[in-house]
């Protein structure tokens, strides 16, 4: 992967492509449905074990703790990983299922 530098020495790299993976995330107070973006050959576990403090979730729907009532919907959500109880792939949203 090559890098391009501007006149101040800032590095610009090519865009990293990812695969939007539909998931359901349980927190202590809410259930979140949305997409985690995985790089090629990356697993959900790899995202959870990364060193960053926050997990990026796109097309997020925040629901009550039982996943029944919709509370909020947003295109982007940064979720503090310390609030994650469990994560599962949302097979209901998988293509060709």
Q: What is the C-alpha radius of gyration, as a whole number of Å?
A: 16 Å
Number of helices: 1
Strand content: over 45%
Given the C-alpha coordinates, what overall shape results?
A: elongated
Helix fraction bin? under 10%
Strand element count: 7
Quick check: average pLDDT?
Answer: 87
The helix-strand sequence is EEEEHEEE
Query: What is the first-to-last residue Cα distance?
Result: 35 Å
Strand order of the largest sheet: 6-5-4-3-7
User: Which consecutive residue ranges, at least 5 long each, have pLDDT under 50?
Assistant: none
The main pleated sheet reads as: 5 strands, antiparallel
- Determine the oligomeric state from the structure: single chain
Instruction: Quickly give the structural class.
Output: mainly beta
Task: Write up what this structure looks like.
A 5-stranded antiparallel sheet has the order 6-5-4-3-7. Strands 1-2 form a two-stranded antiparallel ribbon. By secondary structure, it is mostly beta strands. It is built from 1 helix and 7 strands. Strand 5 and strand 6 form a beta hairpin. The protein has one helix at 44-48, and strands at residues 4-5, 11-12, 18-26, 30-39, 54-64, 70-80, 86-89. The relative contact order is 0.23.
